[in-house]
């Protein structure tokens, strides 16, 4: 009996059709049925992020978030390494399975980070967009204070490091981008930084 029940459950999840849920400006599509348990946190985080983005003078448009069914599926859909949490193009966010992000304690910060990218003004340099996204998400609070070793890079060189995602270098590049964004925000404020000053 137990075996039959297990087979039935496996059969259902293997053929699970994607489920789509919309709440406010966010539409979430997921395939792994276990991801349903994390929708509450996703929508609560989105509502807070939306309020915070509006307070910064940014406008929030409808966003589609698709949670991949596996890390392999994520890499196939996004063309990004299977090791990163999420990828955003315009108003479309693709994430790892919501459950996989939640297990690592990354779900809320990933929603805020990618939410920032969907609302950021066009034309921000990549380093500034990443630095501000990490400040906005709270990820920056976990950065080590160790020197990044990248303070001499130009903005364009730092952008290239961020884009290249060279293993072992991306972490320092993200920290350096965040450090510079923080300095800028301290000097000109969030609205000044978003204006690309
Ligand atoms: Zn980012």
TrEMBL record:
Origin superkingdom: Bacteria
Signal peptide: 1-16
Alphabetic keyword roster: Signal
Protein's UniProt keywords contain Signal: yes
Protein name: Uncharacterized protein
Gene source species: Deinococcus rufus
């Amino acid at each position: 009996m137990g075996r039959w029940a297990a087979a039935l459950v496996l059969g259902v999840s293997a053929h699970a059709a994607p489920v789509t849920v919309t709440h406010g400006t966010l539409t979430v599509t997921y395939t792994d049925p276990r991801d349903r348990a994390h929708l509450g946190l996703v929508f609560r985080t989105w509502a807070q992020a939306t309020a915070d983005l509006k307070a910064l003078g940014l406008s929030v448009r409808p966003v589609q978030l698709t949670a991949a069914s596996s890390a392999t599926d994520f890499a196939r859909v996004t063309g990004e390494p299977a090791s990163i949490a999420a990828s955003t193009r315009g108003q479309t966010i693709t994430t790892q399975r919501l459950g996989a992000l939640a297990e690592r304690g990354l779900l809320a910060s990933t929603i805020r980070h990618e939410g920032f990218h969907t609302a950021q003004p066009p034309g921000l340099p990549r380093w500034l967009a990443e630095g501000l996204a990490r400040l906005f998400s709270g990820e920056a609070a976990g950065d080590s204070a160790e020197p990044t070793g990248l303070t001499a890079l130009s903005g364009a060189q730092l952008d290239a490091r961020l884009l290249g995602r060279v293993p072992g270098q991306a972490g320092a590049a993200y920290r350096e981008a965040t450090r510079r964004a923080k300095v800028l925000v301290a000097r000109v404020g969030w609205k000044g930084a978003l204006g690309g000053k």
